[in-house]
Amino acid sequence: MKRHLWRLSACGLLGTCAFTSAQDLNQLGIDDLMNIKVTTLSKQAKAAGGLPAAIYVITSEDFARLGATSVPEVLRIVPGLHVARIEGNSWMVSIRGFNGRYANKLLVLVDGRSIYSPLHNGVHWDFQEFNLEGIERIEVIRGPGGILWGSNAVNGIINIITKDAADTVGGYVQADTSAIASRSLAAHFGAQANDGTYVRVYGNARRNLGFEEVMTGMKSHPSDHVNGGIRVDITPSPTEKFEISFRNSSNHGSQSVFLPIPTPPYQSVVSVSTPSNKTSLSGRYEWASSSTTTSEVLFSFEKSNRNDFTMHEHRGTSDFEFKTIHTLPNFSQIVWGINFRDTSDYIDEATTFAIDPSFAKDRVFGVYGHSEFPISGSTTMSVGARLEKNDYSGWEFQPNARVAWHPKDTETAWLGASRAVRVPSRGDAHANILVQYSDGPGMPMALRLFGNPDYQPETVESFEAGYRIQPNDSSYYDIAIFHNRYRNLRTFEPEDPYVEPGPIPVLVTPFRFGNKLSATTYGIELAGSWKLPSNWDAQASYSYLHDSFRFDADSGDPFGPYETDRLGSTPAQIANFIVSGPVASNLRFTGSAYFVGALEGRDVPGYSRIDAQLTWSGNNGMQAFVGVQNLLQSKHLEAFPEIGASPTYVPRSFYGGLRWRY
User: Fold this and answer.
1) Which of 95, 364, 505, 602 has the most Cβ atoms closer than 10 angstroms to its Cβ?
2) How many CB atoms lie within 10 A of CB 160?
3) Any idea what DSSP says for residue 452?
4) DSSP 179
């Protein structure tokens, strides 16, 4: 029995796993749990409990029981991961520090394909709308992952993995509403077309309502999101599988922004429309050429148009990857592959942002290899490296080595050392950003930030260790510690002022992006889970992060350590506790408590939050749910201001909804 709880520990630390039926986790015995496999760490399916990395797995059932309506909301339960809501549809999400609207040291994948913006250095969370019922699991790796997934996986990886069409045969409908936060409708229908062929069609629509803006006191504008698509899975033989997906999404909203103007009061609050859309086609072909060798080809094509108050971005992206896994007679495994990305964009100049040239094409080529092999009866080692070429800094090398010791089937200790890079982007090299106007000597002054064609890649050397143990059939504990050293972080280096001619001449104070900052971070992440009497369960986590920054002696950056994603972008301490269980026949309660420390130097105080939800499960797949988020306070602040935009208060919200699986 003990080995089955070990499997359970991978599922959100006694959260919930995916089952072959719609039964609730606590209606099943531990012996019935599936052995969940994860693929993000090594690009091959392995049981999470024995892996040499800090890993956490969230499933679709976690969305349901926690009342989450978006991916960032459910990510709050992951140790070492900081989530801050900026406004109704915008988020800051980062692992182990360096948070911001575009956290540039976190790589986010959807079915193994990157959604990292090559212009903004981060993820447009307001541009990522998912049919949550279609998500099988989210694998979160805390720590570098550049060896297999490429650059920008500096502090971690979030891989959102969708369900096979064969796992969604039948129908699903969900409607939920909140008077304050959001309203949504989602549905999908799956069917078997013939032997080995399954199809899923899905769609969802959401309106995120406006929240109170911190800097203006006004209510922010609502935003509308529509997403739909189709997925087809074909298994022509036991050794082959083909998957193809088409997806289209559109967002429309508006933002209240502080637009710089060259006359007093030097800024104007305006409402800017932000329509955006994207269309993508992706596919995957897997085959086994022998009993010891499997291969896979992935491809994707995407067109997007994004508008916000800074710019209008038109982008086309193509991705291709080939990988092969060899299993050797001594239980060793070798994974190797190549990948290629081609992305082109055209940027319309806006009031505060310009880029020269306005059109560009960027390419990334990478080759990688990874091997895992036993070095004793209970110890395994994995080593590997990636060599990747980009158009800004050339070739980059990212090595990785890990050791895992398994003294018992239910116990793992591990060590890891790796190097990862965040490569320069088009914005780093060629941006021209108007930050603000102010009073000057005889004329207005403007502060501008300029890109640097010689911008260097940012690097991290990371050292990690961890220990997992399941001491009995009803408890599980996980600890991870890390020490990271960063080099070549972004600075803003002053240049000589100049006068910008025009109807109103302006004295420009220019700053150019530089790489004259280093940092050190270290921390600890604790997690535990427990099976309680009467089919109740509980889980908890605690994270501590210490960070320090050092400017090079020749840096002229005047902004100090409390700027952008530096000190204070992530709280030193984060904790959560979740308890769930039946309170009556067909009625289940889930309560969640969160503590998030203050953002030092950012005027964002720490806060405590309690959420609660009741779920009634009826016959024929019908469920009804009601809940409350942020019970303790009428509102609280989570994010800090950024250029041109105001964060909002996150309000207390009561919600309810219905879902039907048929």
Assistant:
1) 95
2) 21
3) -
4) S
Which residue, among 466, 380, 485, has the nearest Cα to 415 in the 3D structure? 466
CA 4 to chain centroid, in Å, comes to: 29
What percent of the chain shows pLDDT beyond 70?
94
Q: Does position 11 have pLDDT exceeding 70, yes or no?
A: no
Q: CA-to-CA distance for 570 and 100, rounded, in angstroms?
A: 9
Q: Which of 59-68, 278-287, 373-382 has the lowest mean pLDDT?
A: 59-68
On whether the CB atoms of residues 63 and 135 are closer than 8 A, the answer is: yes
| Terminal C-alpha separation, the chain | 33
CA 519 – CA 567 distance, rounded (Å)? 10
Burial 178-197 (b: 16+ CB within 10 A, else e): bebbbbbebbbbbeeeeebb
Partnered with residue 212 across adjacent β-strands are 219
Do the Cβ atoms of 652 and 635 come closer than 8 Å?
Answer: yes
Burial of 411 from C-beta contacts in 10 A (0-12 / 13-18 / 19+): middle
* Residue 128 in this model has a pLDDT that exceeds 70: yes
Q: What is the dihedral of CA 343, 348, 350, 354, to 10 degrees?
A: 60
Q: What is the CA radius of gyration of the chain?
A: 25
Confidence of residue 9 (pLDDT cuts 50, 70, 90): very low
DSSP-derived secondary structure letter, 219 = B
Question: What global pTM score does this model have?
Answer: 0.93
pLDDT at 308 over 90: no
The more confident residue out of 254 and 206 is: 206
Q: Facing residues of 500 across strands?
A: 506
Adjacency order of strands within the sheet including 54-59: 54-59, 135-142, 156-162, 106-110, 113-114
**Counting runs of H as helices and runs of E as strands, what totals does the chain give?**
5, 39
The answer to whether 309 touches 257, Cβ cutoff 8 Å, is yes
**3-class DSSP state of 459:** strand
Residue type, 346: Y
Helix (H/G/I), strand (E/B), else coil: 465? strand
Q: Which amino acid is at 304?
A: S
Residues 520-528 have a mean pLDDT of 97
Q: Three-state SS for 88?
A: coil
β-pair partners for 361:
344
Structure tokens at 212: 């109170």
Parent domain of 194:
2-661
Which CATH number fits the domain that encloses residue 70?
Answer: 2.40.170.20
Domain count, the chain: 1
Can you give 345-383 as a three-state secondary structure string?
Answer: EEEECCCCEEECCCEEEEEEEEEEEEEEEECCCCEEEEE
Rounded to the nearest 5 percent, the helix, strand and coil shares of the chain are 10, 60, 30
Rounded to an integer, the average pLDDT of 620-642 is 93
